[in-house]
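cache lookup: miss for this entity combination. No prior model stored, computing from scratch. Input as submitted by user K.M.:
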Amino acid sequence: MTQAAHYAPDLAPPPTLEVRGGRKNFGAVHALRGVDLVARAGEVTALVGDNGAGKSTMIKCIAGIFPFDAGEVFFEGRPTHISSPGDANALGVEVVYQDLALCDNLDIVHNMFLGRELKKGFRLDESAMETRAAEVLASLSVRTVRSIRQHVASLSGGQRQTVAIARAVLWNSKLVILDEPTAALGVAQTEQVLQLVRRLADAGLAVVLVSHNMNEVLEVADSVNVLYLGQTAAQVRAQDTSRSEIIELITSGSAALGAPPVASASTINDAPNGSTPA
Amino acid sequence: MSTPTVSRNDRNDAPPSLLAGSVEQPTFGEAVNNYVSKVRGGDMGSLPAILALLVLLAIFVVMKPETFPSALNIANLFQQGAVVATIAMGLVFVLLLGEIDLSAGFTSGVSGAVLATLLTKNGAPWYVAVIGALITGLVVGLINGTLVARLGIPSFVVTLAMFLALQGAVLLIIGTGGNISIHDPVIVAIQNKNVPPLLGWAIGILSVVAYGVSSLRTWQLRRQRGLLAAPVGVIAIKIAAIAVLVLGMIAILNQERSLHPLRVSIIGVPIVVPVIVTIALGLGFLLTRTAFGRHIYAVGGNAEATRRAGIRVASVRMACFMICSSMAAVAGIFAASRATSVDPNAGGSNVLLYAVGAAVIGGTSLFGGKGRIIDALIGAAVIAVIDNGMGLLGYSSGVRYVVTGAVLAAAAAVDALSRRQARSTGRG
């Protein structure tokens, strides 16, 4: 309980994921020069920043595609080292990439279970997979898909995003990272996906949402983490901040407006017991 | 700050439509409508090939009513089509990846040559020779697969090189102008002997009953679990169609087809037919009912997504090339059995191109991710019927090649057009 919650002296459980001082170099390029992140169960943590700020590198480090060079990672309060995608999956970390990584020629069930098929002996257990997929989609209140035996090719962008997200939560995952899930979607579909993101957090998962869209961030996030040139500018509670403050953090790395709880780089001001905004 | 428009406790309590048990089962009419709209949407499967086959059969029956539908000629068709069908089934695995294996024809030739050498020159028993031929195929597939999957060389180039090398290998094994004849009774029997009529009936009836029981059981199980299942009428029609086809063929092939029935009696289903059916069922099971088969389709659909799902894409590719070459080896055994000899041209000339044509005519996509084992069999039937029927009509090989080429081009055009149609109707 000691290392995980420096601003939460009492009762609060350790965050699902905490990164402290994460660094990543690609040769001479310092992609990440000290990033911090706290992602709590039941919350949506938005990860924002300008192009090239290091958002993608950071989620790839967390997902184990390439590990941090330096810095500490705590998962549920315990120090861990995620060095491969397998490590991340074993911890319960799932990433939904921007390109969704779906196979168009397979149906929804097969996509959701790709690589982790349920089997009876060496046969696929189609009934079990279909039942389980239907349960997960129903638990996410997905009502837009006509049949789960449809090929993914016939789905709309929002439906495809839904399938990708459903696949990520199929495995009792604890932390779901979404890389710009609404970037390619229309208004109505964006709204559907955001509701889904919210429901994931309400179901008790920790959600990290990478996004460019300020309205979306303020609409759905509980906490906002801002990256600036490979460093964490601040992580602030969504209800304590404003659009202009976040934009200032994104563009200059610090908020000069003197708005209340903005921490300087490398410290995190993230009250875990903050009440849920109305 | 802006007011959140999504309620933070937005627990949706509307009844989830996808929950098991609440699926609306389609009626017979709806199922037919669904199929029609699926075909209209560009997802035709092997429908064009089946239609083409029916048209061709009708034409040849009308033009050669005496000879074409005779028991003798139908048995001939199976024996002629066996080699192409077997190679085509193997090619489906490679085509599903979006790759090609140009060496499959000569792989069958080399395997046949190995078989013949082991049998005739080394006096090995038939099973040793068969194992030798299969290992030959596996090794060829291993080399092809390694070069394609591990080194990343395009399969067109790798298998073209293998095609040339194996053509040489056949010559080296047999010698220019040479010919190794085969006398082993087991190998010769595959393509030249028949299943006893009663045994044929027994196998046929048992297979139809087994198919019927298992599809009805699957249907019942899915209904019980509340999963989407085809209407029982559709399943009954499928079972009836299979029964008519299988039992009808057995009835025809169990007729006397010897030209001199008093001297020698030829009666029964050629042994190669149940062998091919068994292989097809095994490969079909592998493709549709196992995780490995699912991964083959996934690699053909989106290799990068498959890799990220934790599947070893290179291993899947290697395995497909090895299956393809092994099937070519089996075809080599069939070819050697039919000719009762192996010559330096074994597996050459049009064998490979007919096999690729068969897979594509049947509905296997050259772009990967789409195709079934049954497609290869239907396509092989189309090619065998063209070859056989036009031969009976007295056309030269030249005309037959031109017609076969035209049919292949038509099949590829159907594939391309149905893809375009599928894109425009959102079925991919």
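stored under new cache key. Chain B is about 70% helix and 0% strand.
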